[in-house]
Amino acid sequence: MNKIAVIILAAGKGSRMKSDLAKVLHKVAGKSMVNHVIEAAKEVASSHIHVVVGHQAETVQKEIQKYHNVQFVLQKELLGTGDAVKSALPGLDACIEHVLVLCGDVPLIKKQTIADLVSAHRNQPADLTVLAAKVNDPTGYGRIIQDNEGQLLAIREEADATDLERQIDIVNTGIFCFEKRFLESGLGRIQNNNSQGEYYLTDLVEVAVQNKAKTLVKITDDVEQVMGVNTMEQLTRINTAFHKTSNEIS
User: Fold this and answer.
1) Which active-site residues does the annotation give?
2) Domains and CATH numbers, the chain
3) Residue 219: C-alpha distances to residues 54, 61, 131, 175 (Å)
4) CA–CA separation, 130 vs 123, rounded Å?
């Protein structure tokens, strides 16, 4: 596992939280969301964890440093997830062959899920592996479009999906594992010609398809552990799910 690096995305403002606190610093079970994610990430890359900070960068960094020894990358302008990952690449050690991308606002992600994702990615081997979730209600999520052999064809946002595609119940979690060389070359090809003017990590799927790169979809049916937090209502739900899981284990 020493050839794996982890990039954790923790630069966003989280404006929908309607809070002065950076989104990833909101707490689940008394601990900042991003610190939950770092703990899970240590399972696969204890000494190669890079956290991308941006909004309230100094505050986020200080909170993390209380508990973890990680490397920090400053995303100077919040130009999207693709740009965030690109900003972290120069800091990766030369020995790194694979890059796992996690979201700092997905605090219930399990160590075993991360380890299984990396193992599947390496055993295939794949250039791009996405962690997907099978959900009862896919509304609002990007749908995973696959061919008959399971190859990933696209991640289709709901607004762009056809009626048939909207019925797909396999959705994107925002968690990826990449072969480093594919990631480096692919990030140089994505464009920001969208309404937000941002570079989206999900656009690498299109790059992979165009270049006949090997893709893999790893599906979990444990939806709660891959839920992201964008609102205070979702934060409350995540806290409830955390305590429920803790009680079941105990």
Assistant:
1) 16
2) 4-228 (3.90.550.10)
3) 30, 32, 6, 11
4) 14
Distances (CA, A) of 132 to 152, 168, 212: 11, 12, 21
The string of DSSP letters for 95-118 reads: T--EEEEEETT-TT--HHHHHHHH
Place of tokens 């992201």: 228
Predicted confidence (pLDDT) per residue in 187-233, tens digit: 999 999 888 899 999 999 999 999 999 999 999 989 989 988 989 99
Pairing state between β 4-10 and 98-103? parallel
How many CB atoms lie under 10 A from the CB of residue 193?
Answer: 6
| Total-model pTM | 0.94
Is the pLDDT at 244 greater than 80, yes or no?
no
| 127 contacts 120 by C-beta, under 8 angstroms | no
Angle at alpha carbon of residue 172, lines to 244 and 36, rounded to 5° = 40
- Whole-angstrom distance, CA of residue 99 vs CA of residue 214: 15
- 3-state DSSP helix/strand/coil percent for the chain, to nearest 5? 40, 25, 35
Q: What is the band of 158 on the pLDDT scale with cuts at 50, 70, 90?
A: confident
